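tl;dr need the bound structure. longer version: we got a ligand (iron/sulfur cluster) that a collaborator sent over and nobodys looked at where it sits. i said id run it. heres the input, straight from their email, havent touched it
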Amino acid sequence: MYGKIVRIDLTKENIHTEPVPEVWQQKYLGAEGINDRLLWDHFLTVSPHIDPLSPDNVLIGGVGPLGGTGALGAGTKMKWTFKSPVYNIFGDSVGCGFFGSELRYAGYDYIVITGKAEKPVYIYIYDDDIEIRNAEKMWGTDAYQADALIKEDMGIDHAQTALIGQAGENLVRFACMVMSRNRTAAKTGSGCVMGSKNLKGIGVSGTKGIKIADPDRFFKVNQRAYSLMDASPTWNVFAKEGTGFLVRHYNHVGGQPWKNHQSNVLPDEVTNNIDSDFHLRNFKIRDSACSAGCATGCSDVWRIKGSETPYASTMSGQTGKRPDYGFIASCMCWGVTDLAHIFHLQHEWDRYGIDSFEIGESIGFLMDLFEKGILTEEDIEKWTGKKMKFAWGDIDVVNFITESVAKKENALYDIIHKGVYQTALNIEKLKGVPVTRYANYGGKHATEIEDIRNRPTWTLLFAVSTRGADHLKALSTMEQMNLWDVARSVFGSEEAANAKNPYLVGCVAAWEENRTTAMNCTGICIFNSATWTYTGPGTDLIAESLIAVTGKDPGNLLEIGERTYNLEKAFNSRLKLTRKDDTLCEAWMKDPIPEGKPGAGMKGEDNLDMWLDEYYQYRRWDKENGLQTMECLKQLDLEDVAEVLGKEGVISNKPPLLREEVVKDSVMKAEAFKMRSL
Ligand code: SF4
């Protein structure tokens, strides 16, 4: 069943609770969907053009109806939504940990924070008791220290926290929130918004549990889910290796960001020293799941003896949680060769509360400029007071840059703290030479980590994502994993899963976004949903679980995903974003993948325009300017949204094509391409 919404105005020190409207439950389901509706309504009361650091921004946290219930053994993910201080567009961020489930056990599914506290505060929640408490003694502490201090102040050592380290306090635009001590809501600057409100964090403890409408049905559907998981090879790999298996997979398909994307595969000796086999053999001591109700446990706990790698000798006895692939990839951007470096940095970046993608790409970019001779030791000394080389793979350099930014210690903060695109612009200004072509980022200048140029759906998704380049707003699993059966059942053609076919890409990308968004509305972990809930029995099981938990049939989940995604698009349209913003950085558009690497010769500009046309048409948007059409929003029961866009002149009145016709045409082209390639 649903918990309440709690609204906290930090300026007025006002706290108020209310039920989740029935109509929102039906139209948006929960989590990303209801968060987006709360965001949309908030920005009807203040201008969407506000500075994201102003008290008028809002920080919304939400957990979907399956979150914290143990449904499907699929874990719990919590969504945070706001206007992004890094990219100045729609922003959201997702994180696991036990904070989201604990919030639900206290009786709340959504927390909406507005205004700005006069002095540092934290929010205390224990069931019906909610207080804004003084956090002055916590200001300046790192995420681990703050977690301990909040629990001590609450007097509840098993309380769960969502909070910021020094990076959030110092308004590093890509600061993240740290949840339950070591999971992060990393993307688009959630921690910066929290810091801008003088809010150190939230501590929560709940004793109420979650009411399940039909417990018998709930247990039956869970038993079916466990059988499916046991029989799924994908799930078993994921349970054993987590996203660590992607080190090998991305070497195979050519998706690595080695040394600021100079190569899309890793040198063999590096792979052998950092891949999952090496980790499992040398470091793993036990399995670990990071959130309530997760049967997969894609994480594990490592322990360093000291002799495993050269750097391990400096970390003897330390333990931690296994870093996921995205984190490993961030470190590869600056040429890591020692897995213990990655363990160390995960600890440091979590401690400061900083997004690994942005800092990883920025450091790789600076090292690349240093290698090219554009950046010199004299520049570095002038900016930092310290003479040093930004040499590939140097852990001391990485530590120094990270600390400089997170703690605002020198001019590197000013240069880097707004993300890699702004870093490039700043260096162009300082050095008077063009360097943006060496910075890697996707749509709306947002940073991602994989090299995507040889996977068409992935490339398009990085250009169009509502929060910028992205892997969690849409997993292009159909293409990445060559899911031929899924391709046939959804589009009637296996070519939808063929990364070598340049047709059908727009349709698949939009479908993937709708599917992923629907999963993000349920409250379960998207990683689990991708392993076995893709179509057929999996989708049925999710619907069945929702009926068991809420007592209501959710209806068409893909339509809920599509409606939610359109709300995010509408937010960006109000900021005047159009087709021209759905693009990639110069490096990915113009530079072909080097000879001898997977996908050699491919580059973004080859087909992006064609894919965008098809993507907009599948979505029933206007392909000329990328804007939503009146008809599309009407069909999604978003007439009120259309009215706002109409008043602001950012909607199209053209009649959209029929989706079936768009798919039919694309399938014909894809099949014709296949015949030509035989
Ligand atoms: S699958 Fe992994 S990320 Fe998802 S809830 Fe489980 S342990 Fe956490």
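gonna send this back to them w/ a short note. The chain has 31 helices and 15 strands.
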